[in-house]
Amino acid sequence: MWFKNLQLYRLGQAFDMDPEVLDERLQSDAFKGCSSMDMLTYGWAPPLGRHGSQLVHAANGYLMICARKEEKIIPAGVVRQMLEDRVTEIEAAEGREIYRREKLRLKEEIIVDLLPRALTRISNQFAYIDVRNHMLIVDSASPAKAETLIGQLRTTLGRFPATPLKTRQSLSGVMTRWLGGEPLPRDFALGEECELKHPDPEGGIISCKKQDLEAGEVRNHIKNGKQAVKLALHWKERLSCVLYEDLSIKRLRFEDIIREEESDTEADDPVSRFDLDFSLMVLELAAFMPQLLEALGGEALPDESSEEAVKQPVEDQRPVEAELEPA
C-alpha cells in the first residue's frame, strides 16, 4: 500500500464531504467487471481489496480511494494475421481487391469476434485526499493516468476542482543550481542519480546513476550548459525519491527508520496493518511535502480568476492493442 510515485494536485476549494457521504457517492460508479462485449470498464473499488467493502478509507483527515480498471487484451499481431487471412480469402473468392475502408470494417468485425474470448488485465490506482491541506495525492508515475482518476472523480461527483501543483521557481533551474554547488536546504541531501539535458536539442543528454553528484565531472556538465531534469534526493534519512522537472516524484522509498516504527506497532490482521501503514505514510508525506515546496522556492498559487480546469475524460473505451495499419 505504500505509495511509490506521487502526482500532486492542489484542490480549488476545501473538500468538506464526509467520508460516509463520499462513499455513498462513489458507490454510484462502483467497479463492475467487463461483460463479454465490454472492451474496458473503470470504477471505484475498496482500498482494502477483499478485506473491505467501503470505497473510502478515512484516517485523521485523509481519505484513501482506489480506482480499478479492467481492460481486454487483444494482441495486435493476432488481429493483423486474421485480417490478412480474411482479405486474402475474400480477394480469392470474389476476384476483387479489398481497399482501406473495407479493411477497417473487417478489422472491427475481427475485434468484436475476439472480445468474448479475450483475456483481461486489472489494475488499481490509489490516491488520497488531504482534507486539511487541500491536496490530492495520486500514486502514479504517469500524469495522464492520474488525470484519468481525477476525470472519473469529476464524473462521479459532478465537480472536483484540482490542478497540478506548481512551484514559483523553475524546478530544472533549482536542481541545476544544487548540482552546480549551491548548498541544499536543511534536511535534504543529494542522492546518486540525475539526468542532465542541454537546452539545444543537439546538445545531448547525460544520465548518471550510482554516481557522486558532487564530483567535478558532473559540475563540468553544468558549466557547459546542461540542465538537470531529474534528481535523486534524500530527506532526513527518512525517505528518498527522484524528483522530476514537472514536480513528479518517482521511486519513492521510505527508509528503515519508518519501517521500524511500523514493525514496533502491533497490527496482526490485514485491516489494522493497512490502517497503520496508511497513517504512517500520510503523516510522513504531510511533513515532507511542505519542506520540499519551500526548498523549491514555494508553491505558485493558481490565479484566483482562473476557471476550473477542463474535465479530463476517462480513457477511450478501446481494447489494448497496438495501432494497426491494414495491409
Q: What would you note in describing this structure?
A:
The structure is a single chain. Mean pLDDT is 89; it is low at 304-327. The chain has helices spanning 19-27, 76-94, 100-114, 143-157, 171-179, 216-223, 256-263, 270-295, and strands at 7-11, 40-44, 57-59, 62-73, 119-130, 135-138, 162-164, 188-197, 205-209, 227-235, 239-244, 249-254. It contains 8 helices and 12 strands. A hairpin with a 4-residue loop joins strand 5 (119-130) and strand 6 (135-138). The chain is globular. It is α+β, with helices and mostly antiparallel strands. It folds into 2 domains: 1-166 and 303-327, no CATH class; 171-295, no CATH class.
Strand content: 15-25%
Question: Which blocks of ≥5 consecutive residues have pLDDT under 50?
Answer: 304-327
Q: How far apart lie the N and C ends?
A: 46 Å
Order of helices and strands: EHEEEHHEEHEHEEHEEEHH
What is the C-alpha radius of gyration, as a whole number of Å? 24 Å
In one word, what is the shape?
A: globular
Helix content percent band? 25-40%
The overall pLDDT average reads 89
Secondary structure class reads alpha+beta
Domain count? 2
Please, how many helices? 8
What composes the largest sheet? 7 strands, antiparallel
The count of DSSP E runs of length 2 or more, i.e. the number of strands, is 12
